[in-house]
Amino acid sequence: MRYDDTLVGAVAVVFAVLSFTIAIGPWSSPYRLRTILAVSDRFGKPAARGVWLAVAIASLMAGIAILSGVRPSYAEPAGSHSMRR
User: Fold this and answer.
1) What's this model's pTM, rounded to 2 decimal places?
2) Which residues cross the membrane (predicted)?
3) Burial profile 14-47: b = 16 or more Cβ within 10 angstroms, e = fewer
4) Which residue ranges make up each domain of the chain?
């Protein structure tokens, strides 16, 4: 695993934890973001909390996938090019 994969995966996991704490916490300032505010105005604060929770789950899944080294079949890490003829 490359160091940049570790960095990106760790940032994704940290963002997942932050999003989860926003979803369950008592803070009101993260709910002033334009998209979250639109969801809150239209569907209510529980739906906005659901959006934060969905962001947390998606970020956690992405972080775990990056840290696990999961890649699409067509992707190769830089520097691992094989000599194909």
Assistant:
1) 0.81
2) 6-29, 50-70
3) ebbebbbebbeeeeeebbeeeebeebbeeeeeee
4) 3-68
Matching residue, tokens 């998606």: 58
Element (H, E) at 40: helix 34-43
Per-residue model confidence as pLDDT tens digits over 45-83: 999 999 999 999 999 999 999 999 887 777 776 666 555
Write the CB contacts of 19 (distance below 8 Å, at least 6 apart in sequence). 52, 53, 55, 56, 59
- Altogether, the residues listed in the chain come to a count of 85
User: How far is the C-alpha of 13 from the C-alpha of 18, rounded, in Å?
Assistant: 9
